[in-house]
Batch of 3 targets.
Target 1
Amino acid sequence: MPAFHSLTARQLRAVVDYLRSLQGKAEGRVLPGDPKRGKGIFFGKGDCSACHTISGQGGFLGPDLTEHGATSSADAIRDEIVRAPRVPPIGYRTAVLTTESGEHMEGLVRNEDNFSVQLQTKDGSFHFFKKTDLRSFDRQDGSLMPADYRNRLSEGELNDLASYLMTTPSPNKAAPPRKKVDDYE
Ligand code: HEC
C-alpha cells in the first residue's frame, strides 16, 4: 500500500466519506436498543427535539442530527449525549449583550468578526450588531445542551436513543445525496 502524500487532507476525507457511503447504513451494525422507543425519548422524555431536528422535525438551537448516527458506533453516540462539561464549537457558543438602547439579549453567536456579531435568540430571530454600537458583549462558557443526561436517562434509554440515531434517516428511504466535496483547491 503506497502512502498517498499527494492527497490533501480534504481529498482524503472525501475518499473516506465515499468508502463509508459504500458501507451502507445500519446494515451489519448491531443496535444496542430499540429505535422506536428511542424515537419516543427523542421527542418525549429526553426533549432532544426542543433543540435538534431529525428528518425535518424539531428545533434549531442544536445541530441537525438526521445524519449524526449514520456512520457512528453506539458507544460514540452515547458518549456524545452524556459528554460533560461541553465545549460548544463555533456557531454554538452563547453570549449576552446590551444594545445601544439598553436592551438585553441572550443567544447563540452564529457569526462574528472583529467588527460585527450576529446573534440568534431562542425565538429563532437573527440580530445583527456592529460591536462599536454595543454597550456590552459577554461571552458565556458552556453549551445550551444539558449536561445531566447521564442522570436523567437510564443505560437502556441511552441505548434506545443511540439506536434511533443510528437508523435515521429511515433505512427504508433512499439516503439523501452526500454533500459534494470540492476536491480541487
Ligand atoms: C436546550 C437545547 C438542547 C437539548 C434539549 C439537547 N441538545 Fe444536543 N446539543 C445542543 C447544542 C447547542 C449542541 C451543539 C454544542 C455542543 O456540542 O454542546 C448539541 C450537540 C449535540 C450532539 C453533538 C452533535 C454534533 O454534531 O457534534 C448530539 C449527538 C446531541 N446534541 C444529542 C442530543 C440528544 C440525544 C438530546 C436529548 C437526549 C439532546 N441533544 C438535547 C442543544 C441541545
Target 2
Amino acid sequence: MGVAASGLALLLAILMAMPTARGADAAALERGRYIYDAAGCQGCHGGPGGSAAGAAKAKLPSGGLGLDTPFGTFRAPNITPDPHYGIGSWSEAQFKAALRQGIGHDGEYLFPVFPFTAFSKLDDRDVADLYAYLMSLPAVALANKPHEAKPPFGWRPLLVFWRALFFAGVPLAKDPARGEDWNRGNYLVHAVAHCEECHTPRNFLGALIPSRAFSGNIDGPDKQNAPNITSDVKTGIGAWSLADIEQLLKTGMTPDMDIVGSGMKAVVQGTAKLSDADRHAIAVYIKSLAPIQVEAPPPKTAAAK
Ligand code: HEC
Ligand code: HEC
C-alpha cells in the first residue's frame, strides 16, 4: 500500500465518522431543548413582545420579563449566545457554575429567585445539553434590565448568609427501594421542573420550608396562589388519580374540567412537551407525597386566570 492509499483510507474514515458526529450533536440539541422546555427557562427568560421584531424575539431567552416576588421585582437576564449582552462568551464550566452553584460569570452570587437551588441537582449530561442548546440559538443583542429588589434583598453580598443557611447543593440520591418511575419523577420534579418553587411555602427570608413541602403557597411568584398538591384528600389532591395528574400536565385540565391559569399555564406548556413516560413518572412521584392538611385552603384567585 502506498502513501496515497493510506491517505485515502484516512479520508474515508473521516468522511464516514462525520455523519455520526453530526448525529450526536443533533441528539444533544434535541435533549437540551427537552430539558429547556421541562425546566421552564423560557417562562422567566423570555423577551419583550410588542413590536413585530420583539414578538419574534419573544421566543428567544433575551430576558427582561419582570418576576414579582415579595422581595421585589427581578428581571431574568439575556441568556442567548450574544457575546456582549448574553452568555455567548461563557465557557461550559461557567454555565455549569451558574446552574449548579448559583455563581455568576464574575464570581458574584446569583439571587435564588433563579432556581439554582433546584438546578444544582441537574446531572452532568443535562447541563451539557442545555449549554449546547442555548449556544445553538440566534444571539439577541439586548441589554439586561436591572432588578428592582426591596432592600436589603437586592444586596448580593448578603447572599453569603442566605447560602450558608439554605443552600446545600447536594445532588439527589436515588432510592433503590422505589421504582424507576418514582426516581425519574423525583428528578424531574426537584431538579428540572422545580415544582416546589411555587407549591412550597417560604420563610421570611424566602427559603422553602421543608416540613411544608408541596403544601401550597398563597404568596407565590407574581402573586400566584399555588395550591396544596400533597395527597391530603380534603385540602390537597389526594382524590386525584395518576391519570388525572398526567392529564393536567398534558392539557392543563383538572378533573373538574377547569383549565389551570397563572404560573401553572406556563408550566403546562413545558410539561405538555414531555414524553408520556416522563409525565407518568412525575405523577407517580407527586402521588407518593405524604398528606399535609393545610389550615384554611385559600380560595382560588379568579383574577389570576
Ligand atoms: C423562576 C424564573 C427563572 C427560571 C425558571 C430560570 N431562570 Fe435563569 N435566572 C433568573 C433570574 C431572575 C436570574 C438573575 C439572577 C441574578 O441576577 O442574580 C437568572 C440568571 C440565570 C443565569 C445567569 C446569567 C447571568 O447573566 O448572570 C443563567 C445562565 C440562567 N439563569 C440560565 C437559566 C436556565 C438554563 C434555565 C432553565 C434550565 C433558567 N435559567 C431558568 C430566573 C429564572
Ligand atoms: C410558576 C409556579 C408554579 C410551578 C413551577 C408549578 N406550579 Fe402547579 N400550580 C401553580 C398555580 C398558581 C396553580 C393554580 C392554578 C389555578 O388555580 O389556575 C397550580 C396548580 C397545580 C395543580 C392543580 C391543583 C388543584 O388543586 O387544582 C397541580 C396538580 C399542580 N399545579 C402540579 C404541579 C407540578 C407537578 C409541578 C411541577 C411539574 C408544578 N405544579 C409546578 C403554580 C406552579
Target 3
Amino acid sequence: MKKRLMLMLLMVSIIVNAVLVYKFFYQGEKVIIKKDSRSEIKMTKENREYVMAEMRGFLESVQKINEGIAKNDPNIIAGVGQQSGTCKVNTVPQGLVKSLPYEFKQMGFQTHELFDVMSKMAKEKYNRQEIQVKMNELLNNCVACHQTYKITAEP
Ligand code: HEC
C-alpha cells in the first residue's frame, strides 16, 4: 500500500516537473514588441547589402576608436577615416543615392565626415577626452538614424 502511494507521488512529481520545464524553459514569456514606427526605405537587394556592409564597417571603426581611447593610443584611431570616412561616398553604387531620402543622406554624410574628423584629430592633435566627446556625437548619429529608418529589399 505504501509502495503504491510512493509511486503515485513520484508520478505526480514527474508531471509537475515536466509542466514547469515546459512553461519556463520552452514556452518562456511572451515578448511584447513595441510598434515599429521607423520609415521604410526600399531598394534593391544588392544596394541593401552594400549599405549593410558599410554599416558593419562603421561598427568596426567605432570599436577601433574605443580601443584607441581605452589604450590611450591614437594610432589605432588614425585609420578610421580610410575605413569609414567621406572617401567611401565616391564608391556608392548607382541608383542607391536616388533611393535615399534627403535626411538619410545628410545624416549618412555627416557620419562619414565625423570619422574623417576623428582620424585627423588622432593624427594631428590627439586629445583623449576630445576624441571621446566626438565619439559621443558620432554614436548619437548612429542612434538617431536607426530610430528613424529601416531598409527593405525589393523582390
Ligand atoms: C543615415 C542613417 C544611418 C546612420 C548614420 C547609421 N546607420 Fe547603421 N543602419 C541604418 C539602417 C537603416 C540599418 C538597417 C536597419 C533595418 O533595416 O532594420 C542599419 C543597420 C546597421 C547595422 C546592421 C548591419 C547588418 O549587417 O545587418 C549595424 C551594425 C549598424 N547599422 C551600425 C551603425 C553604426 C555603428 C553607426 C554609427 C557609426 C551607424 N550604423 C550609423 C542606418 C544608419
